[in-house]
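Consider the following assembly input.
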Amino acid sequence: MSTIHQGIRLSTIAVVVAAALASASASAVVGIEVSSTFDADADGWTFVDVPGVGNYVLIVSGPSNVAYSATGGSPGGFISAKDPSNNTFFFTAPGKFLGDQSAMYGGLLKYDLKLDPATPQWTGDPDVVLISDSGVLVYDIGNEPGSSFATRVVPWSEAGWRVGSLSGTQVSAVQFQNVIGNLGALMIAGEFVASTPGIDATFETASLDNVVLTPVPEPSMAVLMSLGVLGIMGAACRRKRPAPK
Ligand SMILES: [Ca+2]
Ligand SMILES: [Ca+2]
């Protein structure tokens, strides 16, 4: 390879890196991850009982205090709530998960949940409900939690979300962004067991740990990875260069 060709190769790489850095700074509005791992306390979480089956706004009872356990989580501390009635109960997120969460658009809501008991199953309500002045959106994961902590994942974008109830219309990108732009409530279902009046064992206890609202991967990470790839390519080029004669 001549000196001139090598010069062109290096300047091409410089342009690619500069473009990548420029694109990273242009898309700088990326949310910072929000989480509750319950290491010290219940972190502001409560629970509410609502009619359910399409009615998630009317609060029958609550907000009520959750139970806090310092050990036995996944790992460390966790919170739990016992089903208070034949209605439908949800954990309700503290303020750090609310307000304008549009910088998280395209990310994920993840949490660990377990039930005691886990059967007989109730499938008539969604896993997550978002409430804002712009409307009520619901999401159903499609499988039910079991009796040990397992991670449940919900997209922080419109795919799979429904307006108002499980039988509602599909949510558009604009609808989803309007709701997460001014979020008044984020509710995570604890209700997964069909209650039989008078039989205490069918009032399940739901336990929650590791709630994380995480944005799309940072562009800077993609830049760092491409820089790493370029570095490897550069090293390969240097190794291939024939010894001077
Ligand atoms: Ca924990
Ligand atoms: Ca109930």
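Residues 37-38, 73-78, 209-210 surround calcium ion (ligand 1) (CB under 6 Å). Ask yourself how this observation constrains the way the partners meet.
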